[in-house]
Amino acid sequence: MRSIWVVLKKEYLTRIKNKTFILMTFLAPVLIALFYGGAIYFATVGAADHSEKTMYFQAPYWDLESDELSFEDYTFVPALSNTKSMIEAIENKKMSGWLQINDKDIRYIDSAELVGGASFSVTEIQKLNNHIKTRAHEFLLMELGISDSTLRQTEVQGSIRALEIDNDGDVANSNTTLKSAVGFAMAMIIYMFIFIYGSMVMRSAMEEKTNRIVEVIVSSVKPFDLMLGKILGVALVGLTQFFAWIALSVGLLGALSYAFSTGSDSITKEAQNIPVNELISGFNTLPFFDIIVVFILFFLGGYLLYSSIFAAIGAAVNQETDVQQFMLPVSLPLVFGFIIAQSVVFQSPNGQLAKVFSMIPLTSPIVMAVRAPFDVPISEIIGSFILLLLTFVFMVWLSAKIYRVGVLMYGKKPSWKDLFRWIKQS
Amino acid sequence: MLKVSHVYKYFDDHCVNNDISLDLKDGEIFGLLGPNGAGKTTLMRMLATVFTPDRGEILIKGETLGSKHVPMIGYMPEERGLYRKMSVVDQLLYFAELKGLARSRAKDNVRKWLHRLDIVHWADRKMEELSKGMAQKIQFISTILHEPKFLILDEPFSGFDPVNADMVKDLIIELKESGTTILFSTHRMDNVEELCDRLAIIHEGRKVLDGSIDEVRREHFKFEYDLSFTEIVTIPEHFHFRKLEAASANTYRITLNKDESFTALLDWAYSTQKLKSFGEYLPTMHEIFVNKVSHK
Question: Most exposed: A131, A261, A372, B39, by fewest CB within 10 Å?
Answer without folding.
Answer: A261
